[in-house]
From TrEMBL, chain A:
<dbReference type="InterPro" id="IPR051691">
    <property type="entry name" value="Metab_Enz_Cyan_OpOx_G3PDH"/>
</dbReference>
<feature type="domain" description="SoxA A3">
    <location>
        <begin position="3"/>
        <end position="87"/>
    </location>
</feature>
<dbReference type="InterPro" id="IPR041854">
    <property type="entry name" value="BFD-like_2Fe2S-bd_dom_sf"/>
</dbReference>
<keyword id="KW-0560">Oxidoreductase</keyword>
<dbReference type="InterPro" id="IPR041117">
    <property type="entry name" value="SoxA_A3"/>
</dbReference>
<protein>
    <submittedName>
        <fullName>(2Fe-2S)-binding protein</fullName>
    </submittedName>
</protein>
<dbReference type="Pfam" id="PF17806">
    <property type="entry name" value="SO_alpha_A3"/>
</dbReference>
TrEMBL record, chain B:
<protein>
    <submittedName>
        <fullName>FAD-binding oxidoreductase</fullName>
    </submittedName>
</protein>
<feature type="domain" description="FAD dependent oxidoreductase">
    <location>
        <begin position="17"/>
        <end position="373"/>
    </location>
</feature>
<dbReference type="InterPro" id="IPR036188">
    <property type="entry name" value="FAD/NAD-bd_sf"/>
</dbReference>
<keyword id="KW-0560">Oxidoreductase</keyword>
<dbReference type="Pfam" id="PF01266">
    <property type="entry name" value="DAO"/>
</dbReference>
<dbReference type="InterPro" id="IPR006076">
    <property type="entry name" value="FAD-dep_OxRdtase"/>
</dbReference>
């Protein structure tokens, strides 16, 4: 692996960028996600999260037993606005006439 | 060389001049401006020692969870002026902070579908002209030339301000953090303040690590979490948390310039510089009432309600995919105005809270004016208006009706 190896292929986050996040003092998967954008693309971290976790454990930054994935965000897989709109129940939302 | 951000092991001294609780945009923006103004030893004073204490990771709260909208289109002259200052500051902030803030001035397009909305937009345009904000009234057809994909059948009137825009919130927070640390601010993360003990002068902050830090002045910059700290000191303020949901879509090629707001439904959507559609809506309270619990769970009710409103106004979105949804807490003040300044009965315990969902965009201006007040006692018209003492004094006045979401 080189500094230019992609750790997160959805968001083009390289190993070098993860190394820089660690160098500025970050060691938590949630903060590294928010510093680099890792895990915020279409696969939602399914591919990159384990690579990041492995790196943090290997560096001694996080004990393996304490490692947690970042919060899973719904939906499980991408869903169209059209499909979701069809799932709305009740009458079309009453809109605030004062607005 | 990139500056070190906050760390869980930053050493804190036993005494500091100012302790800021909360490492969000307000706390970090304030710390940055304090360091900037006092670091030079201006007016013969020694530099202030400033510590920021964050209970979790940076950007863990509302500062990392908002839509990044930045606008001067408000219904009240004070807010318009404040946001003109903030946007002016944003223009060269990326340079100052040495980080890409993804600031893009694509404007804000407000749509009115009711007579009441129309009246508000007409009033705004007159007000903005007086204050000097370049907002203009548009017909529905003109709005459609800015966003061709809009279904404007129900739109009666619109306004557009080309100076409004969007930023990427995460980068903003990292930028303030790095520059504050570079200028000597002590930034401790993953450490909470478990007890605030009043002293004859100042406060002793008892930390979750067992350490105690004494501070001559303490700033409560914990937003929706501020009530618990205030209650420890018997400070009774009426701001309350409110869950606000938001989502982003798959990234697409740039196609949408402005952030669009539909006044009737409270729907807003913009395209971030990363290409995602970022969108939220005013969600009526669940049948069991408003949720002030600070639990950050997402709901299907939000997804379906938003999707129905969005696909009616912007039919092309029906084929776009939702990628991720999340929640952030608004810190809602009953009159919509922030709560900033000395606390009732505790003049050295300073609030910077109650921004009602709009703190992020105001933070650049607020950080600067609050730093000036803390250092030199410099007055600002908004500080008089935001006084935490106004509720007890019966000085609450609802001035603003352009609160979105």
């Amino acid at each position: 692996m080189t500094a230019r190896t992609f750790v997160c292929r959805c968001e083009d986050v390289t190993l070098g960028e993860v190394e820089r996040a660690i160098a500025v003092g970050l060691a938590d998967v949630e903060e590294i996600k928010r510093y680099t954008g890792l895990g915020t693309g279409p696969c939602q971290g399914k591919e990159c999260l384990s690579a990041l976790g492995r790196l943090l454990v290997a560096r001694g930054l996080v004990p393996a037993a304490a490692l947690r994935p970042f919060t899973a965000r719904p939906p499980v897989e991408p869903v169209t606005f059209g499909a979701l709109a069809a799932g709305a129940t009740g009458p079309v939302a009453p809109e605030d006439p004062s607005r | 060389m990139t500056a070190v951000m906050g760390r869980p092991d930053t050493a804190l001294p036993a005494d500091v001049d100012v302790a800021v609780i909360g490492g969000g945009i307000m706390g970090l923006g304030l710390a940055y401006h304090l360091a900037l103004l006092s670091g030079t030893g201006a007016k013969g004073k020694p530099p202030l020692s400033v510590a920021v204490i964050e209970r979790s990771y940076l950007v863990s709260g509302a500062s990392g969870r908002n839509g990044g909208g930045v606008r001067m289109q408000w219904g009240d002259a004070g807010n318009v002026r404040l946001m003109m200052d903030s946007i002016e500051l944003c223009k060269d902030l990326a340079q100052q902070l040495g980080i890409n803030l993804w600031f893009r001035q694509g404007g804000y397009l407000f749509l009115a579908r009711s007579e009441a909305g129309e009246v508000r937009l007409e009033r705004n345009v007159h007000l903005h002209a007086e204050v000097g904000a370049p907002t203009r009234l548009l017909t529905a057809a003109e709005a459609q030339t800015i966003v061709p994909q809009l279904d404007v059948a129900e739109v009666r009137l619109a306004t557009f301000n080309p100076e409004d825009g969007v930023v990427f919130p995460w980068a903003f927070v990292w930028g303030y953090a790095a520059k504050a640390v570079e200028r000597g601010v002590l930034l401790r993360t993953h450490t909470s303040v478990t007890r605030v003990e009043p002293l004859a002068r100042g406060y002793a902050l008892h930390l979750s690590t067992g350490e105690v830090v004494r501070a001559a002045r303490v700033v409560n910059a914990t937003g929706a979490w501020s009530g618990a700290l205030n209650r420890q000191l018997g400070i009774d303020l009426p701001n309350r948390p409110h869950r606000h949901e938001i989502l982003s879509s798959e990234p697409l090629k740039p196609f949408l310039d402005p952030l669009v707001v539909d006044l009737s439904s409270g729907l807003y959507f913009s395209q971030s510089t990363r290409g995602e559609l970022v969108t939220g809506i005013s969600l009526p309270d669940a049948p069991d009432g408003s949720d002030e619990s600070l639990t950050l769970h997402s709901s299907l009710r939000f997804l379906t309600h938003l999707s129905r409103t969005l696909t009616r106004l912007m039919p092309i979105t029906a084929a776009m995919k939702v990628l991720r949804q999340w929640v952030g807490p608004y810190d809602v003040s009953p009159d919509g105005d922030a709560i900033v300044g000395p606390s009732p009965g505790h003049p050295d315990f300073i609030q910077v809270c109650g921004f009602t969902g709009h703190g992020f965009m105001m933070a650049p201006a607020v950080g600067r004016l609050l730093a000036r007040w803390l250092l030199d006692g410099e007055a600002h018209p908004m500080l008089a208006r935001w006084s935490p003492g106004r509720f007890a004094a019966g000085g609450m006045a609802r001035r603003e009706d352009m609160i979105i979401g």
